[in-house]
Specification:
The protein is an alpha+beta fold. The chain contains 17 helices and 15 strands. The mean pLDDT is about 90.
Length: about 525
Amino acid sequence: MTREGIPFASLSNGDALPLDRVPSFSADEVGRITRECIGLGLRVSAYFGAILGGAKGVAARFPELFMVLADDERSRLLAARAPTDGRSFPSIAADCPQVQLFEREIAEQFGLMPEGHPWLKPVRYTRSWTERDAWGREVGAPILPGVGDFYRVEGEQVHEVAVGPVHAGVIEPGHFRFQCSGERVMHLEIALGYQHRGVEEALIGGPNARSLHYLETVSGDSSIAHASTYCQLLEALSHRCRPARAQAIGAIALELERLACHIGDLGAIAGDTGFLPTSSYCGRIRGDFLNMTAFLCGNRFGRNLLAPGGLWRDLEGERAKVLGARLAKGERDVKSAIDLMWDSQSVLARLEGTGVLPREVALELGIVGPAARASGLPRDVRFDQSSGMYRLAQIPVSTSDTGDVLGRAFIRWLEVQRSLEFLKEQLECLPGGAVLDGEAASTGSRNAPYKAPCLEPNRLAVALNEGWRGEVCHVAITDSAGAFARYKIVDPSFHNWPALAYVLRDQEISDFPLCNKSFNLSYCGHDL
C-alpha cells in the first residue's frame, strides 16, 4: 500500500464530513490497513467505540469501532469505521503497541474482547455498557482501581516497591508498582483510573450550557488546549469561521499556557536535582505567566475566554502593550533563571543519560509532544496539522536526538524561546475586527442565556491542537438531530504514559522523580 492508496476517508484538521462518507470495513480489515499505514509512517490519533442510532432512529444493537490516523507528512487525517458483533474484535496491539491502551479502553467501555491482546487490563476501571464485560463479569460488579493482576518478576533478590495512589503534596492519585533488584528498576507498571469522572459520557446529547465547562476542566493545566479543540469542532459542525483577530488572541493564550507549564517544569526538574536557584526562580516566574493569562481573560488557567465562533474577551490596544511589556520582563527573568541551570555541570551530568527513550521506541509507542521531539520525532500539530493562526505564523519544530531527561528539558527551553518570539510577533500586528462571529455575538456574553448551536446531523468531525504536553485530539459524531452521539477525547498523556514506564527500565529507582517530571503527564487527562 502507498499513501495515495489508503482507502480511509481523508479530512483536514478541524473539518467535518458526513458519516456515510466514512468508509466501513470489517474490524479485521481496519486492523490490517492500520498496520500498513503505521508502517508508512502514519500514527493513531484516536481509536474508539460508539453506539450510534440505526435506520429511522432505531438504536443500534452493537457498537461500531472508529479509527482516526494522522498523516503528518501530508497534513491530513484519515478515518474509517468497522461494525462489530457485540462480542469481540481482532487485536493488533501485539504488532502496533500504540493501540494497546485504545483497545483496552474499548473493552472496558463496551465489553468487546480484543482477541489476541497481549496484556488485557482495565484502563480506568469503569463499568461496562453491555450485559457482560470483556472479562465475563456481570455489569454492576465493582471494579476497584489498583485491584488486579500486576506483572511480577520472579527471583530471590527481586522486591516490589509500591508508590501511591496517595502522594505527598498537591498531586492527583496514581499507583506505580516497581519490580526492583536492589536499586535497579526491572519493570514499572502504572495503574490509573482513581478519579474517573465520566466526562465523555456527560457530553453525549450536547452541546449544552455545561459542555464547554467540561472541556475546560478535562485537564486543568491544559484548559486552553482542550477548550480550543472543542470550539474548533463546533465551528466545523456548524459551518462557522472564527474571526482572524480571535484566532491570533487564541494562539496567544495557548502559547501563554505552554510557557507557564514549561517554565514550571524546568524549575521542578532543577528542584529534583537539588538545584534550588532555578527551582525557586521558576516557581515564581511560572506565576507571572499565569498572571498574564489572567490579565488576558480574568482567569489564570484561561477559562471564560474561548467560545465557538471566537472569544468572549478582546485584547485592546493599550492592554496589548501592557502584556507586551510584561512578556519582555518575563523573558529576561526566565533566561536568567534557566541559564543558571545550564551553567551547572552537576545538573547537566545528573540529567544526561537518565531515562532514555530511543527514537524507535517512541515511534512504536506513538509518543507525542516534547517527549517525542526529544527522541528525534518532529511531531508538532502546529506545524504538521496546522490550523488557525498557525497556518500563517508557523513555529519551527524543536527536536533533539538524546531521548533522555536532558533532551526533554532542553526541548522545553527551546520551545519557551520560540513561543516568546511568536507572542511578540502576534502582539505587534494583531489583526483588526471583532473577536466574535455574528452568531456568538448575538448572545452578548458568556453569562447570557445559553443558545445551542445548530450542528449538522450525522457528521464526524476531528480537531487537533498542540497542547504543551503534545497532541490534543477530539472527535465528535452527531446524531440525526445534530446532538453529540459520541464525543471522544484523547489527551496527550494517554499516548505517553507507556513511555514513562519504559524509560524506568534499568534505571535506579531514585531516578523516578526526574523521569516523571520530565514527562509530567496528566492523571485527570487520562481518567476521563
